[in-house]
Amino acid sequence: MPDNELIERLRQTDEKALEQFYVLHWPQALAFARQNSGQEADAQEVYQDAVLLFYEKVLSPDFILTGAAAGFLMQIFRYKWLKHISKNRPEITLAAEHQWLMEAKDDELPEDYEKLKQVIQSLSERCQDLLTAFYYKQWSMEHIALQYAYANTDAAKTAKYKCLQKIKNQFKKN
């Protein structure tokens, strides 16, 4: 059904329309969750929350759909899913990814290692995660954009660049 008809039916509290919309987009949400560290039960719970939030937004009198309804729902789901997995995963930092650096003998470490380590640890968690994903997990920018809910790969590249600039600027200051 066209989006304008869907919105109209939802505003008339047509439960059948909501149920159809839910069922139609569940496979896409489940696929996203599975690609991003997910189990079906968790994905279903987060998806239900996303559909309810979507429904609440539609019922708001000032709501205007500016894109595809499915896209809006999936945007809500992705945000909620990434928030869910970030709450439930153990803390991962650059230092943890490469424990060997911390255990290496002093004469094996680069000259400015301690300084660089402090600068990296002073970065936001998001920057640390993004750099870890790119450099150590060797994820593609497409995967990073999807994983961290960037609008596209260019936005993810810009974020990575800004994180690297923060390291360079802090390193120069110290």
What does the model show?
The protein has helices at residues 3-11, 15-35, 40-59, 69-88, 94-97, 99-103, 113-122, 125-136, 141-147, 153-173. It has 174 residues and is mostly helical. Helix 2 (15-35) packs across helix 3 and helix 8 (125-136) packs across helix 10 (153-173). The protein is elongated and about 65 Å long. The termini are far apart.
Quick recap:
The protein has ten helices and no strands. It has helices at 3-11, 15-35, 40-59, 69-88, 94-97, 99-103, 113-122, 125-136, 141-147, 153-173.
Biggest β-sheet description: none
Q: Span between N and C termini?
A: 60 Å
Low-confidence segments, given as residue ranges, are 91-105
Helix coverage percent: over 70%
Strand content: under 5%
State the secondary-structure class: mainly alpha
Report the principal-axis shape. Answer: elongated
Order of helices and strands: HHHHHHHHHH
CATH top level class name of the largest domain:
Mainly Alpha
What is the count of DSSP helices, taking H or I runs of 4+ residues?
Answer: 10
Radius of gyration: 21 Å
Structural domains: how many = 2
The overall strand count is 0
Mean pLDDT: 81
CATH topology of the largest domain: Rna Polymerase Sigma Factor, Chain: A
User: Could you say what the CATH architecture of the largest domain is?
Assistant: Orthogonal Bundle
